[in-house]
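Ligand-bound model needed. flavin mononucleotide.
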Amino acid sequence: MIGNPLAATGRQRYFQAPMELDLENEYAARAYPILASLVTPRPIALVTTLSADGRVNAAPFSFFNLLGADPPICAFAPGDRDDDTPKDTARNVRATHEFVVNLVDEAIAEAMNQCAAPLPFGESELARAGLHAAPSSLVKPPRIAEAPASLECVEWGTLQIGGNRVSSA
Ligand SMILES: Cc1cc2nc3c(=O)[nH]c(=O)nc-3n(C[C@H](O)[C@H](O)[C@H](O)COP(=O)(O)O)c2cc1C
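Prediction:
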């Protein structure tokens, strides 16, 4: 990764060497905060899924964006937990192949944060955060009634890259 410390001001007239950070070696342990502070702002996908036995799960993901419009495609990336096991959202997408990306505005920002709490598998974060499930039109996982917009998604594919899963739909 190469960063130009002068790029932000645009006023300096002298040359300064750009910073070079090797995120796979020297800066590997700090790759997350470095990348997350460079690529900002990021939208949040508050993803709802169903477990194989039909329990609703909700969790926020900032590694998320649209990838295309024709056909419509978006992707988000749940990383594995510290113990190398997949998060509930990733398990559910693998099991049921559907998810809903609920977009987040200021009004539900705090509730979205609460949905990040690690709860036992199958326990719904929605009720705890004061949010409500509403039926989706095309997929089985519910949308969130309070969300300003929701994308009903059918999994196109999931790439596993190290400890990351990149699910697109
Ligand atoms: C604002 C915000 C953004 C997050 N973005 C991500 C992300 O992109 N990838 C990820 O793996 N975890 C992310 N997390 C953490 C997950 O939401 C958290 O691990 C959650 O407990 C996962 O829930 P699950 O096990 O029900 O899937 C984020 C948390 C917050 C509050």
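The domain at 43-168 is CATH 2.30.110.10 (Pnp Oxidase; Chain A).
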